[in-house]
Amino acid sequence: xxxxxxxxSGSFAASLITVGLWLATGGPGLAASTxxxxxxxxxxxxxxxxxxxxxxxxxxxxQAADTDTIQVSNGTYLITRQIVVNKGVILRGIGGRExxxxxxxxxxxxxxxxxxxxxxxxxxxxxLSNGMIVASAYNVPGGVGLYLSAGTVTNCxxxxxxxxxxxxxxxxxxxxxxxxxxxxxxxxxxxxxxRCYGAGLGLSNGVVANCTIENNYGGGSSDGLGGGVxxxxxxxxxxxxxxxxxxxxxxxxxxxxxxxxxxxxxxxNTSATPSGLxxxxxxxxxxxxxxxxxxGLNAVELxxxxxxxxxxxTNQNGGIGNYRYAENTTSLVANCIVSSNTGGIRLxxxxxxLFVRNCIISNNGTAGAxxxxxxxxxxxxxxxxNCAIVWNGYGAASDYGCGIKMATASSTNxxxxxxxxxxxxxxxxxxxxxxxxxxxxxxxxxxxASNRAARAASxxxxxxxxxxxxxxxxxxxxxxxxxxxxxxxANVMDACYYSCSPSLTNTANGNITADPLFVGSGNYHxxxxxxxxxxxxxxxxxxxxxxxxxxxxxxxxxxxxxxxGRRINMGYDANTEEASKSIPAxxxxxxx
Length: 592
Hints:
By secondary structure, this protein is an all-beta fold. The model is unreliable at 1-26 (pLDDT under 50).
């Protein structure tokens, strides 16, 4: 016995009740009666055997009752009006989706192919093709190939359907309820129009699972959203969204403003920007791979929503950016890998707030930095916490190479806390620092190490023009010629507090100049006789780093493991569970 359990909240949960029932009983089960449909049939027959099969699917549905099965033989069934599955029947193409086609008769100017509206309906094994409708308004459900509001549709191909005037969302398929699973939605077309909304799929409720949405085309000239998928609610899971090409549309692969997209691959889509994913509102995208998308400024753009546990890699543009209409929105990026894009994370003018936590931003930079702020006004707020920003900028020939570039003086609401900024390289065409180019913002409890400048006029570590640097380690950064180059810029010494670098003045503002004693071999934890953290546990060292218990007095230290000296450490692991342990000053004996 097969069982499927869902624990979901939201408006699409109710649509799963029917799915749970038929799966829990081992599938659709035995129908009360079984009827046959064939291209050689006749609607005057009784439909009970292949010798007496009916000719049309619509007649079979009209004659059948709930729980009956309708078997459809191989062939192409041309329709002059849409097939409406409004009963709890099982409708099955016995030869499978490649051999059983339902298509609009081209003599009809317009017709949707199929509408499924009964919670007990189960449709399996068809190609739904050549539907065409004309939009009378913008942003209304389409479903030219399939309009699903209840029931289950599985193992179908939904292809070559058209919304001739654009404006619909979901040209190939629209899902407003029920379950669409194990289907291919391909080569559907939206337009020509001024707007395109999901040339492949529109989803406003229900579940779409294990589907491939590919090679759909949005013909709109501007202001469209979602070339492959336009999603406002529901669940999209275990799908591949690829090779969609919307014309003048933003979100080449997926546009989502509500609901959840989980465990999907979004790849090789093309759009003006963003080419892969446009995430806004309350949408959640998790456990997805967003890769190899093309053109535009960014592969992913945000105006709200949550992006978590995703990989954003090898896109032929920037990795993640804020959407140009992102005013007054808050977005979260957590536990993601942003790697091997032309740029990593790029923030620009719209007034918005971005939180980036526990991310790896690496190997970006053939035309951009790991993190790049351009023309960013004070109204943009960004907080990066517990991130590794490493190995960015190599090969960059633009003005944007380095680990972090926040070169606009108005970018005052930018904070990097507990971040490792290491092994980045500055651009050969600018004076960016190899690690950080800052004209504003805050570096707090960060480690900036082993970065390198690409030209003689640049600093390997921090090229300073404004902002504050507190509780940081800035060490072993190099100029283009290999000389030590940790800090540069007017007043940079006055901007550093309780930090460690040989380029500082010892004891001024609580700073120290000693070697921080990194563990080494790419490990930027500091040494401790009581132990530094590794992936396999704690390892004791021969020496104690001077950065232990030397951070700003009064700063929180409670997350550091015992013994912690009751004072925060310096560097990127300060006040974290991975902070190197303290050496107690001595033992106090009390006698009475």
